[in-house]
Design brief:
The chain is mainly alpha-helical. It has one domain. The chain is about 65% helix and about 0% strand. It is built from four helices and no strands. The protein has helices at about 5-30, 35-40, 45-70, 75-85. The longest helix has 27 residues, at about 5-30. About 20% of the residues are buried. It comes from Lactobacillus acetotolerans. GO terms for molecular function: glycerol channel activity. It is found in: Membrane. Belongs to the MIP/aquaporin (TC 1.A.8) family. It is a multi-pass membrane protein.
């Protein structure tokens, strides 16, 4: 990990933002009425493939963009687990 703690916090914020935007956006597109993912019979109503692709891209893109800056925790369980093992300082867990 490189950069100041402020840069790491910003990278985690934007990484989580991308994950939520793409993942939850795919769910909304697949299951809300009158959306392109739900109305087009050729797409088989979006479904699990659209949701899996949205969340897959939502994890992959921030990992590629911000992984070298912040370690790409994105999931609070990773941060807490690393802090428990002594690999991450407890003083920064809440900010991550």
């Amino acid at each position: 990990m490189t950069g100041s703690w402020e840069a790491r916090y910003a990278a985690e914020f934007f990484g989580t933002l991308i994950l939520v935007l793409l993942g939850n956006g795919a769910v909304a597109n697949a299951f809300l009425k009158s959306t392109t993912g739900n109305d087009d019979p050729g797409l088989a109503n979006g479904g699990w493939l659209l949701v899996a692709s949205g969340y897959g891209l939502g994890v992959m893109l921030p990992a590629m963009m911000f992984g070298s800056i912040s370690g790409n925790h994105l999931n609070p369980a990773i941060t807490i687990g690393q802090a428990t093992l002594g690999l991450f300082p407890w003083s920064h867990v809440a900010q991550y």
